[in-house]
Write a structure and sequence with these properties.
six-stranded mixed sheet, alpha/beta
């Protein structure tokens, strides 16, 4: 079971935060008190690893602009509630076990006076009395069946299972609706385990060991034989408590003068490691309990334990019958130098590679932020004390990507260049390439061009832009030009080689696109014909043919010939040939639509960016 989304209502500053994207590796960023730790604790509540405290319930002022009112529980008030909802992808085996389709929505809900409920969203009978049949006693099942005119079939024994079978069969024949209902026991067992590591001084090595070994212990209880033994024990103790519970029920009913009062204890054994004793010694010294050792030693041991946990957990989670593991780190870089921060980043990446593992990290560390795809970053911010999120989706444009990065940098107090760690600056000739290339890159590789460390900017044939490129190069930054292939021989091109040489650049500083001349050439005849028919239909209502497009490539400049043809025969023709490329780009849908020659150019740029970046300046330079 893989968590892919999280929504939180009325938990601390998370008054109403919807659809926090959770990927295999998710980095939560943001300024202090913006909701990062609250998000992690809300996740712990969803997975049953923590209870709700009074301080967890949002207390936004009544009537104050932009805030939600959560009044305390009173005679005439609705109970305050906290709801944490998760969206989960489920495996084929879980689909069969739960009789559900992926994804499933699961929530844990707390309401004052009602306690905590684990629920999931599914198709249920429209009649509420037919929904939670397993919670009814045999007398209640029999009465409900009588009310509905249902009887046992011939040969069915007059026992609870028989009445339950009859009512469940009847429930499937009536109208169904989608609603939240109590989660079945199978779903509780399928939820992922949570491993929560805190980077502050409060996270002792003993606490880390308890967390890791408790996670392993609960994995072992998922074995069918062990699970059955635990179930038998739960039933045995439930039977033993029946008389005690019934005595309490009668006393309360009598003392409070209730007509009816029910009390049904539910027993659940949840194994955990209660205590761990650790001691360490340096060479030639006696062992010293870690509780008496210095903070530095404890911090190093904690980091080593985190690193060891990824191997220990991966040994069984890959084939585990449970829902996998979610590993959470809250400020893991606290009090660590850069070298140890890099170790933490590698550890996080290794943990996220597990088939059944997900990693969520709350951090301010540039090392951690810079080490992941920007699509894996969720930026938390706050307004009037309420948290909200900013993140990138699969359909976001290059403009939205740059806006997200700029806003995140501003919020964290960094300049853009410091946050982005641009490794390679690539200049393009004009607005066409600047608009089309980021979209083509994202379609080809599945992530924004910024994630590859490439900063793209449009020069527009401007000498000032060339001077800026020269400035960057002189300051040991990697600068390349992405130019049309005919720039080598066409003296009229804005970025011809002679002009670049005058600014100190060579042919080796250029990446070339075009087959054989320019960007428009790389797209296929069928792609152009499809775009022309969809966007610029002929006025004579005939269809554009790929053969017509192909004929334009034999003589003269293809892009100019193509625009002239469209302009001549369609009143809806684009104003310029540059607009044609952008329009075609927006019609591409799958990675294979991106021309191979362009993909090859992108791959070359990525290789350059991999080894690029700021370099050491010698004293003589």
């Amino acid at each position: 079971m893989q968590l892919i989304g999280l929504s939180v209502t009325n938990f601390r500053s998370l008054a109403h935060v919807r659809d926090i994207p959770i990927r295999k590796q998710t980095i939560l960023t943001g300024h202090n008190d913006c909701g990062k730790t609250a998000t992690l604790d809300a996740l712990a509540f969803l997975l049953g690893e923590r209870d709700i405290k009074e301080s967890d319930i949002s207390h936004f002022a009544i009537g104050e602009a932009g805030r939600s009112a959560l009044p305390p529980l009173g005679d005439d008030e609705q109970p305050r509630a906290v709801v944490v909802e998760g969206k989960f992808e489920i495996s084929a085996a879980e689909t069969e076990l739960l009789n559900a389709s992926s994804p499933v929505r699961i929530r844990r809900r707390f309401a004052e006076g009602e306690g905590v409920h684990l629920e999931w969203e599914g198709r249920v009978p429209q009649s509420s009395e037919l929904r939670d049949l397993h919670a009814l006693k045999v007398l209640e099942l029999r009465q409900l069946a009588s009310n509905l005119g249902l009887t046992l079939s011939s040969g069915q024994p007059n026992v609870r299972a028989s009445w339950l079978e009859v009512l469940e069969a009847h429930a499937t024949t009536g109208p169904q609706v989608t609603d939240w209902v109590a989660a079945p026991a199978e779903l509780k067992d399928a939820l992922p385990q949570l491993l929560y590591f805190k980077g502050d001084s409060a996270e002792s090595p003993e606490a880390v060991v308890r967390s890791i070994l408790t996670a392993k212990l609960r994995e072992y209880t998922l074995d069918e034989t062990t699970r059955q033994k635990i179930t038998d024990l739960e039933e045995e103790f439930s039977d033993q408590l029946k008389e005690d519970a019934d005595q309490l029920r009668k006393l309360v009913k009598e003392r409070c003068a209730f007509d009816e009062f029910t009390l049904e204890p539910q027993i659940q054994f949840k194994p955990s490691v209660s205590n761990v004793s650790l001691a360490a010694s340096a060479r030639g010294q006696h062992p010293v309990p870690l509780s008496a050792a210095g903070a530095g030693r404890s911090r190093r041991i904690t980091l080593a334990l985190w690193e060891a946990s990824q191997q220990l957990l991966s040994e069984t989670t890959e084939n585990s019958a449970g829902g996998g593991v979610i590993i959470v780190y809250d400020e893991p870089d606290t009090h660590l130098d850069y070298d140890h921060q890099r170790r933490v980043m590698e550890m996080i990446k290794a943990s996220a590679r597990g088939t059944h593992s997900t990693v969520v990290v709350a951090t301010h560390s540039l090392n951690l932020i810079d080490g992941v795809d920007i699509q894996d970053i969720v930026h938390l911010n706050s307004r009037d004390g309420r948290a909200y999120i900013q993140s990138l989706g699969g359909d976001d444009t290059d403009v939205e990507t740059r806006r997200f990065l700029s806003n995140m940098a501003t919020s964290l107090g960094f300049r853009n260049s410091v946050l982005l760690h641009e490794k390679c600056f690539i200049a393009v000739e004009g607005a066409t390439e600047y608009a089309a290339l980021p979209a083509l890159f994202k379609l080809a590789f599945g992530y924004p061009i910024q994630s590859a460390g490439i900063a793209l900017w449009s020069c527009g044939g401007n000498d000032g832009a060339l001077n800026f490129a020269k400035f960057l190069k002189e300051h040991h930054r990697t600068v390349k030009f992405l130019v049309d292939a005919d720039s080598l021989r066409d003296k009229n091109k804005e970025f011809n080689l002679d002009r670049l040489k005058r600014q100190g650049f060579t042919e080796g500083d250029c990446l070339f696109i075009g087959a054989p001349n320019e960007l428009e050439d790389v797209f296929g005849n069928d792609q152009w014909a499809d775009t022309m028919n969809a966007l610029w239909p002929r006025d004579d209502e005939l269809q554009w043919k790929a053969e017509e497009v192909s004929a334009l490539r034999t003589e003269g400049k293809f892009s100019k010939n193509l625009h002239t043809l469209v302009y001549k025969h369609s009143s809806q023709a684009p104003r310029s040939k540059e607009d044609m490329v952008v329009a075609l780009t927006h019609r591409l849908r799958v990675p294979s639509d991106v021309p191979a020659s362009l993909v090859s150019t992108f791959e070359t740029a990525m290789k350059i960016a991999t080894t690029a970046g700021q370099s050491y300046w010698s004293e003589d330079d």
